[in-house]
């Protein structure tokens, strides 16, 4: 294409991008479309490169994306979808490398250069930067939230990473040669859980892009703990507010509103059920009480979905459309439970304070691990056994 052509395309792209960004700010619209616009423009650029080079390499990553999209649309709350999208990313990155040098694309070469610098930085300083971030984040969480185990996860992870670094440093100095192999056990397990976390985080972020249709009969609001046993907490209020926002959006689009199904039982330290407290809050926000339904016996997310499904099945045996709302970090696991009870319902996420997100996603990850604890215990046991056998062979034959 040449340097002048690349500069022209890049300049047009920047002008259009800046103009679109200004328009979005004036209209106060979501910036998700800005990412879609950027991706569409870059895709058109790649198509142009292919046409000029009389090649069809773009079909290969397109097929892998199609594979991910098919399985994702077929069954969204599946962890396998994260692996399929990761496979697409690897294939697409390989494609960019090929098109950069075969097609001599300066834009893609520049993009790969930037990504390479970022990867090199992460490789050299990423772990230390992560530890500093986790410690700083844990300080903020403990300052603003209760000092529960659930709110200490970022601090616990930081301490575990520091301990791992110390062991890796002093281990070679105090252990015999054959035992050094055993130091690979925590490293391998750490890499294994990092890959599992990457997959979970990736599919959780993709799941945030859900755009349910405005034809819902019910909207389940998942409960959370109450303040003083009767008042909704800020985190629960955000879930209700997200449900109320969709309630009004659907009325504006389709001239009919969904029933808000408040789901949450009464804890031993609560004066009223979470569902009743949620209804009181929603009524204060202007929602008519006749548009609110209560499910007041559940004690966890699985029961939220199960008991809500039974209630809706009884009230609307002919079938219904339903979605649910919870905090953005929680909706993927909520969808997994909905799938388990046979409830086809997508989740829409309520915003969560940014400082709380790292701890929240770690908590969700821990819950996902526990859902499949047998599988992960088997993998960890195999890792330990494998390196133990290697170390014993090293001791015997050296």
From TrEMBL:
Keywords: Membrane, Transmembrane, Transmembrane helix. The chain crosses the membrane at residues 6-24, 33-49, 55-72, 84-103, 109-136, 148-167, 179-207, 377-397. Residues 217-364 form the DUF218 domain. Pfam families: DUF218 (PF02698). It comes from the Bacteria. This is YdcF family protein.
